[in-house]
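Regression test attached.
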Amino acid sequence: MNLEHAIVIDHQPIQGGYNLLHMRAPAVAPKVKPGQFIHVKVPHLEECVLRRPFSVFRADGDTLAILYKDVGKGTHTLRYLKAGESLSILGPLGHGFPAPQTGRYPVIVAGGYGMAALYLTARTSPVKGVAFFGGRAAKDILCVSDFEALGWTVHVTTEDGSLGRRGIVTDALDAWWKAEGAGRAPELFVCGPGGMLKAVAARALQQGWPAWTSMDNNMGCGVGACLTCVLKVKDGDGWTWARACREGPVFDARDVVWEELA
Amino acid sequence: MNPDVSVNIGGIRMKNPVMTASGTFGYGPEYAELVDLNQLGAIVVKGICLNPTKGNPTPRTAEVASGLLNAIGLPGPGVDGFVSEYMPFLRNYDVPVIVNIWGKTVEEYAEVAARFDAVPGIAGLEVNVSCPNIKEGSALFGTDIRMFERVVKEIRKATKLPLMPKLAPNVSDIAEYARCAEACGADAISLINSFPAMGVDLKTRKPVLANKTGGLTGPAIKPIALRLVWLAAKAVKIPVVGMGGITTAEDALEFLMVGASAVAVGTASFTTPDTALRVAQGIRDFMAREGLSSLSHWVGTLKA
């Protein structure tokens, strides 16, 4: 992990309140593994004492990109950052997604901008699998062409039916399994809102599929010191806390105490 | 000129006057990839009680204007867990290790202190009598002068290590606690702990912390801390370690000027992990600029 001043190369709104921030970060970018995150000190926001965590979307050479939605004070201020400006980043942080297992069929399940955390897994996976993207509406479905360009098949669902199949992402996953699951041994890579993670994990556990879920907990220091981002994981017959920033953000779905998740 | 910034805090010899504040720097390894621990004045580790503890439910922190609310609830590995998991790591460094200790009873405080007395590589003990997030014990020891006196006296009997009670800010007369610590044989005092506080959510009509209330830290509490450190330093002869919202060398120099002999960086380490090192370097630069050969020429020089 490194602390460095990254330089903004490009910063553009994509659609529906989502933005793509591309930066040069020679100390951090080359070390990024799929599913890891960076911790960003939002410039011009001196009253905020905490950094903001963002999954790394792409990492190429000495540059990396994050994809984010304007959801609060931090991201709202971040939006105004222009090319050429610098920002302090800490990373890469956390344990990301493992390399897909040989002999299994990789399946990506993403809710909203959760796909950003999964792009590097799709790119490095030797087998091009199937990806399920779910969101409220067409504007929440991002980067389908990026995944298709890697050779993955993308199934889109929206709650309002404005793009792809109408429904939620697990509907599409269930339908695919019924129609095309025969003879396949899936391995799931999942990122999205808590409710979606829980629903997908429940299917994986029931079916006995390996599943890796990226947990989006509120975070403080990002390095394991403050113990803000803890979640309950199984420990023998009981439970113990695990830090999303250190032991995670990606957890084996079998380890998470899902009942405790809001 | 190469100014002398070394200090001796009640028998703890530090290369520079900047330590980490308990609870904001883990146990050391968390930041070791980013911060050269050898360059810290001292490491103060997160609070340790006798047995392993799980701490509070989540949410445990919430950001507020220029500060952070927390109610972590002192989760930790207990004395044995800390000694076996972290001391081998910490002994690799040339930096004083100060263990922050707490207990639910006077007896537990004394036992924890006694146990650490026998552990090689520990430079001193900071006594947490003032955590606002523990239901039994801790906060009470910090805000009731008789309880405070009892616990400091018992710990003093239990250990020969340099002893540094950490004072609570929410008392009516901080000088009384400072003097009491000195009279009970403390080698130094540190202050302030976080200030009791809360935040609420208008949508859910619930407190923002699972513990309902918590402690406020960060730049928001700096002026409160500065006054209390000034009052405490005037009241005692033992060294005072000042903390509360220190983010820059200027902040630290203010605490030193009002009478602190050393300072601690807390919440600012979350924002920028190497803040303590930057603050130490900034103090050196300031002294060189001002022609101050020794920190003692600056400490307590407030004209008031």
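Expected vs. actual: identical. Chain B has one domain: 7-55+73-196+217-297.
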